[in-house]
């Protein structure tokens, strides 16, 4: 293989777009890792097969490629449903471009864009932008609160000294106590601070630590079922911040269930995935699931925004802070309701030297 061919193959393997190459007889001559993942096929099995054989339940795919070769003209198809060999259905945009040699179509390149994945990426990016804007606004407000709050507490302390044991000190104690509570709330609004302090961590050890902490806080014994992926490697993260993020989500799950409620914790390795518009070879997926009533429909869209809460006693900061901490690690948290269960899913990239 010459240097140009080697470089072309390396480039094809490392681009996010799913790419397939067919010859003039519609036989597959090349496919990159992204396309293998999208179509749930392996290069070893499909090499040399025709487009009709690769997707027999979606003949329109092969027909479009055949038409592009015959007409010597590129074609773009939007929102096309493709039924895979495993019966899964995906929706893609695909671009078919014939490669000309002496006015003859020798090969054709097919680019596939997964619309579900694209929609998710756009949603993640929009959520990230809105979340950052909301936090900046909230942090500005929190800074404005801190100074008068400190003055209020100081004045109450001076008044308490003047009262010298009077029964009225009961009221100054309330002022000081509430000022401290608000100060703590403001500090939580301004979190997280600083850079990540990364070290090699085992995610299952972190999950066990959080479980033990929440169980110690709870009046009832927790009914938790674990389903851990033993293949998950250790990876670099800020252990304390990761504990705080998972702790906030776990506490939410505990608060949502009744005494007989159930919580499930699942970990999985994800391969060849895109997180916040960046491609990673490996990522960690953590799901914290409960059988509680779920998030009220009216706040689902702003669930991770500061001060949004469905509980009367809640501050609306736990999930917002958790999202910020996970985003600092390059990941994200998403929520969905599946079969009467509430699912919070954390996706964290495992960074390698090539990322």
Description:
- With 355 residues, the protein is an alpha+beta fold.
- It folds into 2 domains: 3-117, 2-Layer Sandwich (Beta-Lactamase), CATH 3.30.450.20; 195-355, Heat Shock Protein 90 (2-Layer Sandwich), CATH 3.30.565.10.
- The chain is built from 10 helices and 12 strands.
- The protein has helices spanning 3-13, 33-39, 43-46, 51-54, 59-71, 115-163, 169-190, 203-217, 239-256, 318-328; strands spanning 18-23, 28-31, 75-83, 89-101, 104-114, 199-201, 224-227, 235-237, 263-275, 278-290, 332-338, 341-350.
- The chain has a 5-stranded antiparallel β-sheet with strand order 2-1-5-4-3.
- A hairpin with a 5-residue loop joins strand 3 and strand 4 (89-101).
- Helix 6 runs antiparallel to helix 7 (169-190) and helix 8 (203-217) crosses helix 9 (239-256).
Provide keyphrases for this structure.
single chain, Heat Shock Protein 90, 355 residues, Beta-Lactamase, 5-stranded mixed beta sheet, alpha+beta
Number of strands: 12
Flag low-confidence runs.
Answer: 1-5
SS strand fraction: 25-35%
How many strands, which pairing sense, and closed or not: the largest β-sheet?
A: 5 strands, antiparallel
What is the radius of gyration?
27 Å
What is the succession of H and E elements?
Answer: HEEHHHHEEEHHEHEEHEEHEE
CATH topology of the largest domain: Heat Shock Protein 90
Which percent range fits the helix content?
40-55%
CATH architecture of the largest domain: 2-Layer Sandwich
**How many H/I helices?**
10
CATH C-level label of the largest domain: Alpha Beta
Could you give the distance between the termini?
27 Å
Backbone shape? elongated
Mean pLDDT: 80
By CATH's scheme, which homologous superfamily of the largest domain applies?
Answer: Histidine kinase-like ATPase, C-terminal domain
Strands in their spatial order, largest beta sheet? 2-1-5-4-3
**How does the helix and strand content classify structurally?**
alpha+beta
Number of individual domains: 2
């Amino acid at each position: 293989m010459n240097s140009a061919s080697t470089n072309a193959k390396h480039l094809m393997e490392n681009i996010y777009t799913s790419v397939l190459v067919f010859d003039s007889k519609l036989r597959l001559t090349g496919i990159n890792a992204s396309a293998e993942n999208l179509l749930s096929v392996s290069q070893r099995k499909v090499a040399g097969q025709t487009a009709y054989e690769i997707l027999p339940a979606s003949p329109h795919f092969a027909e479009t490629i055949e038409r592009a070769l015959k007409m010597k003209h590129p074609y773009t198809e939007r929102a096309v449903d493709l039924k895979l060999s495993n019966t899964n259905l995906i929706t893609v945009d695909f671009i078919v471009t014939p490669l000309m040699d002496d006015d003859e179509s020798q090969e054709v390149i097919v680019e596939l864009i997964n619309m579900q994945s694209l929609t998710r990426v756009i949603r993640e990016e929009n959520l990230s932008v809105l979340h950052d804007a909301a936090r900046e606004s909230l942090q500005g407000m929190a800074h404005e609160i801190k100074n008068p709050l400190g003055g209020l507490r100081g004045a109450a302390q001076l008044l308490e000294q003047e009262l010298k044991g009077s029964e009225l000190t009961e009221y100054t104690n309330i002022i000081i106590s509430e000022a401290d509570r608000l100060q703590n709330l403001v500090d939580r609004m301004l979190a997280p601070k600083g850079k990540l302090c990364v070290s090699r961590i085992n995610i299952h050890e972190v999950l066990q630590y959080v479980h033990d902490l929440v169980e110690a806080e709870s009046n009832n014994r927790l009914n938790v079922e674990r389903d851990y992926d033993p293949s998950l490697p250790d990876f670099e993260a800020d252990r304390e911040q990761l504990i705080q993020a998972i702790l906030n989500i776990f506490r939410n799950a505990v608060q949502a269930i009744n005494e007989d409620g159930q919580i499930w914790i699942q970990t999985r390795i994800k391969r060849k995935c895109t997180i916040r518009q960046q491609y990673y070879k490996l990522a960690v997926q953590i799901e914290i699931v409960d059988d509680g009533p779920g998030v009220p429909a009216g706040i689902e869209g702003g669930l991770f925004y500061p001060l949004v809460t469905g509980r009367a006693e809640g501050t609306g900061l736990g999930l917002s802070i958790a999202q910020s901490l996970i985003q600092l690690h390059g990941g994200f948290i998403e929520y969905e309701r599946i079969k009467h269960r509430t699912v919070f899913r954390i996706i964290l990239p495992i960074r390698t030297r090539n990322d």
